[in-house]
Task: structure prediction
Amino acid sequence: MLREHASTAPQYGPTEGVTRTREAAAVRATETGRAVAAEKNVLISSGSQQALSPVARVVLLVRDTTGP
Result:
């Protein structure tokens, strides 16, 4: 892999995950009966902290309140 991607290997990947990995996840999800229309609907995170922000954006709408 390092030979193929030497210039980008030490860099951070895209926030949503590497496209080829997301495509493979979408294919696998479709094969197992999950409703995934395309790789653009798949997010690959490097850990739970990275995944919390987009999940919070989906669950909490702008008009929602989080306090008393």
Q: What stands out?
A: DSSP finds two helices and no strands in the chain. The chain has a mean pLDDT of 75. The helical segments are 19-31, 48-59. Residues 43 and 54 are 9 Å apart (CA to CA).
